[in-house]
């Protein structure tokens, strides 16, 4: 069960969208619980075709790894071993951030759609920062 209310998730989405506007892009933004189940998923108008899928993949990967995406380079030799037992696509690029509540993985936020992975990471960081302050 997620410790976040819908109101809190919507506030985190607003924070993420504010950074998205500052960055000048359109993104997919997805929040999942600790089991990788979608809590909130948005694809902004104008976002790339794969933005929503990328956001979901990054969020689920962060939950599955218990840590943020983008830590391993996409060419790391361990990637095929990670992918082998996962029921969804593993995302290795930045933008998936694990959400912790009282030190325990409570879910994740994933952001996709930018050409620059730093933009995805900044948008997801805004969402996590807001939820961490609650």
TrEMBL record:
Signal peptide: none annotated. It comes from the Bacteria. InterPro entries: GlcG_carb_metab_protein, PduO/GlcC-like, PduO/GlcC-like_sf. PANTHER family: SLR1406 PROTEIN (PTHR34309). This is Heme-binding protein.
């Amino acid at each position: 069960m997620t410790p976040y209310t819908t109101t809190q998730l919507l506030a985190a989405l607003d924070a993420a969208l504010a950074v998205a506007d500052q960055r000048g892009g359109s993104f997919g933004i997805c929040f999942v619980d600790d089991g990788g189940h979608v809590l909130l998923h948005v694809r902004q108008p104008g976002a790339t075709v794969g933005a929503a899928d990328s956001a979901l993949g990054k969020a689920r990967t962060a939950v599955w790894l218990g840590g943020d995406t983008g830590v391993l380079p996409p060419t790391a030799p361990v990637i095929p071993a990670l992918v082998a037992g996962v029921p969804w696509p593993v995302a290795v690029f930045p933008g998936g951030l694990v959400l912790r509540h009282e030190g325990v993985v409570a879910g994740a936020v994933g952001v996709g759609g930018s050409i620059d992975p730093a933009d995805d990471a900044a948008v997801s960081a805004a969402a996590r920062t807001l939820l961490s302050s609650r």
